[in-house]
Design brief:
- The protein is 14% helix and 38% strand.
- Strands 1, 4, 5, 6, 7, 8, 9, 10, 11, 12, 13 and 14 form a 12-stranded mixed beta sheet that branches.
Length: 217
């Protein structure tokens, strides 16, 4: 029988011990932080796949964006300390709610598939920016809790699994689609799109992907 997940004790470099958060040498209780290392704080029902075949529909998952691993429970009522870690294998992937997460071996990380286009795929890397706490140095200053802030990085992926990171700023994103820059600029202006918004970025990607003579180089 194939083992799709293992206990955390067997997983190296696990940064979250359920009852507290580890970031480097710092340890913080969840009540003493803003935000969370998890994409979905609570375990959610999901579907486990292998090679496009459904393996299980009775498991519960949550994605740890800080450590880039997926935690698994067989019983939603079980303690979090009983959760296990999904094996990191490109052929094994999960759907948590509406998010399809796959593991890419070359990049050594999980990505959310946003769009499977005709020529390209649009991936999203879910990350967490960590800000350490700031202690008050005087009675005039306020203590600032340790904070986890959501950050997303988008990639266009070719049929050969080549990854091209989409720039973070609006102007650079427009230049990123250089081979169809004129057409895209007209489309963006006509549709009143904001490339800093994910839903609008998806619309631009779909339009870009609809052309036959396109490239990213």
């Amino acid at each position: 029988q194939v083992e799709y997940y293992q206990y955390k004790a067997n997983e190296p470099n696990v940064a979250v011990d359920i009852d507290r958060y580890h970031v480097g040498t710092d340890i913080y209780m969840p009540d003493n932080t803003n935000g969370t290392p998890f994409h979905n704080e609570t375990f959610q029902a999901g579907v486990l796949y292998e090679d496009n075949k459904i393996i299980s529909t009775s498991l519960f998952f949550r994605y740890n964006a800080v450590n880039d691993h997926i935690e698994v429970k067989e019983n939603i009522a079980a303690e979090d300390t009983e959760s296990q870690i999904l094996i990191k294998d490109p052929t094994v992937y999960v759907k948590i709610a509406n998010d399809l997460l796959i593991y890419n071996k070359a990049s050594e990380g999980y990505f959310q598939i946003l769009i499977l286009g005709n020529n390209f795929k649009l991936y999203k890397k879910l990350t967490k920016k960590y800000y350490p706490p700031r202690l008050a140095k005087s009675s005039f200053e306020k203590e600032v809790l340790a904070t986890f802030k959501d950050e997303a990085i988008y990639f266009i992926v070719t049929k050969n699994e080549e990854f091209y990171e989409i720039p973070a700023t609006k102007n650079k994103r427009e230049n990123f689609f250089a081979s169809k820059k004129i057409e895209l600029k007209k489309f963006i202006e006509k549709s009143e799109l904001d490339l800093n918004e994910e839903k609008d970025l998806i619309r631009v990607f779909r339009y870009f992907d609809s052309f036959e003579d396109i490239n990213l180089k």
